[in-house]
């Protein structure tokens, strides 16, 4: 099995670009906790407020609630810069407006690293990706490519099933579980029969499993999609 590369270390600021609240917690949060613990800055930017994501709850109630849960979750892993852009949940598309917002945010935050969502059609056979995620991922890549070369962050990674790089997160697994558990109302509605902490633990275990291609270490994994310089 081909080994994964260590995630780059020569950077200070990362920008996580995602579609919905809870997206960072389904794969990135353990790595984020490690990086902020090392003194690095991580900024979260979310296209939507996830207002369509809680069954039986009106969007005008669900959106603010999910924003609050995301801010609480981010604080657990050391992120205190979280912004929501107001694009419509479940209707995110790769539009000029979205690409412009992504490009503006990249220029403003000036990160060396971008973390984005997986854009492929399936996570695994029979496990389709969400359309919002695919459209958003495509918009991030298009916006990055449209930037002048001197304005592009050095690295752009996606958090997905075909990793090229990994971060040892053994010590950060408890924080990642707590971060996902902070989406309490969302998870309670998503699966009313399983305690929130158990849901969170199972998801974090799946995304930080010890890997034979990373010396048996527990890892958060990323696929390098773009590199400049």
Description:
This protein has 229 residues and is an alpha/beta fold. It has one domain (5-227): LmbE-like (Rossmann fold, 3-Layer(aba) Sandwich), CATH 3.40.50.10320. It is 37% helix and 22% strand. It has 7 helices and 11 strands. The chain has helices spanning 29-37, 59-76, 96-109, 131-146, 173-181, 184-190, 196-207, and strands at residues 5-6, 13-18, 41-46, 81-84, 113-117, 122-124, 127-128, 155-159, 165-168, 210-211, 217-227. The strands form 2 sheets. Strands 1, 2, 3, 4, 5, 8, 9, 10 and 11 form a 9-stranded mixed β-sheet that branches. Strands 6-7 form a two-stranded antiparallel ribbon. A hairpin with a 2-residue loop joins strand 6 and strand 7 (127-128). Helix 3 packs across helix 4 (131-146). The protein is globular, with a radius of gyration of 17 Å. It comes from Gordonia desulfuricans. Keywords: Zinc. Pfam families: PIG-L. This is PIG-L family deacetylase.
